[in-house]
Amino acid sequence: MTSHRVLHAFGEDVLGERDGVALADLVRRGEISRRELTEAAAARAERVRGLNAIAAERFDDARNEPAPSGDGRLHGLPTFVKDNTVVAGLPTD
Description:
This protein is mainly α. The chain contains 3 helices and no strands. The chain has helices spanning 20-29, 34-47, 59-64. The protein starts with 19 loop residues before the first helix and ends in a 29-residue tail after the last helix. The relative contact order is 0.19. The mean pLDDT is 81.
């Protein structure tokens, strides 16, 4: 019999069960901060570290960057980018 370990990132945090649009709306209204979202995303990523799914972490950069300018629909959300997408300063597979 094979034993399977359940590994998931979900928890009781600011990300909750909301989608990105709802979270961005909360940030825009000042009900939660970009920092709170970043910390929750980093904590979730840490819980699934064993999957080796993140090629390059930039959580510290995200914590220290000034708020982005603009008012895009997903303004202020932490984001993960697949490593086959070219982004300056990140490794590409």
